[in-house]
Q: What sequence folds into this?
């Protein structure tokens, strides 16, 4: 691998030593790393994931864009989002801008709740506030509502912030540590596939770069023939390496999403999308 030694050192040092690198320094190091690793890719290319590195797979992906399989999910999500609760209110009452065009601000650190709040968690908090039962996470109606809200944010930039306060930084660092930690019977870490060996082949699949991983969710997985959320994908990855599986919207996965999304800060939202 022709990775620049100094950039590798900077990035992996920042991934393991919270006292050395700030989130802003982590992001700058990661961007420089990928600019040198894949000099022909533009920032917008990373939203395509592995398709940006695999021309044949990209042709197949492009062919699905005219009639994407998630279109019905967007429509169903819009209906569900606008439907009134039993008390006459709806989701729009819970979100800034009525929920339209806000996906790029999630997840965020909620100082009052002292936790990372994802868009899925906010949706169920809205339901609870209006005396409605929570929706199951990962797929189904939750994924459809996310598809609609994300669709209204297409083209907007991810603008996730990590405030300079102790507990917010700790949540970010926990997500970063999770990404770099080897786990499971296969003793693998997220960063091995998506940083160390990004662009390489694993069996027939091209390993996608970490940069851009948060831009395109929820995604329709052609292998599973359904739309799912980012935490659904976390669970799938954990199963593949035979690691401990956490519940969707667990603190572990929300912190991981916080870190992962911050590292795509400044990239355009392209979800919902299609992945194998």
A:
């Amino acid at each position: 691998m022709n990775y620049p030694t100094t950039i590798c050192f900077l990035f992996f040092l920042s991934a393991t030593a919270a006292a050395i690198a700030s989130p802003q320094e982590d992001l700058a190091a990661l961007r420089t790393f990928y600019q040198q690793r894949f000099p022909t890719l533009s920032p917008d290319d990373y939203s395509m994931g592995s398709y940006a590195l695999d021309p044949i797979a990209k042709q197949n992906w492009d062919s699905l864009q005219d009639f994407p399989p998630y279109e019905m999910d967007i429509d169903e999500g819009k209906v569900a989002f606008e439907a009134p609760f039993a008390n006459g209110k709806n989701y729009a009452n819970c979100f800034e801008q009525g929920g339209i065009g806000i996906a790029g601000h999630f997840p965020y650190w909620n100082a009052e709740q002292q936790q990372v709040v994802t868009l899925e968690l906010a949706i169920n908090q809205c339901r609870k506030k209006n005396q409605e039962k929570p929706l199951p996470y990962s797929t189904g109606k939750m994924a459809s509502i996310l598809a609609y809200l994300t669709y209204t944010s297409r083209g907007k930039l991810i603008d996730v912030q990590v405030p300079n306060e102790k507990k917010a930084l700790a949540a970010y660092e926990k997500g970063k540590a999770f990404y770099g930690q080897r786990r499971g019977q296969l003793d693998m870490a997220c960063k091995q596939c998506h940083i160390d060996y990004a662009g390489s082949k694993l069996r027939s699949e091209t390993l996608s770069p970490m940069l851009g991983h948060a831009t395109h969710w929820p995604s329709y997985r052609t292998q599973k023939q359904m739309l799912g959320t980012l935490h659904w994908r976390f669970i799938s990855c954990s199963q593949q390496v035979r690691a401990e599986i956490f519940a969707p919207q667990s603190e572990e996965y929300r912190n991981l999403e916080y870190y992962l999304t911050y590292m795509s800060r400044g990239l355009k939202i392209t979800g919902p999308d299609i992945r194998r």
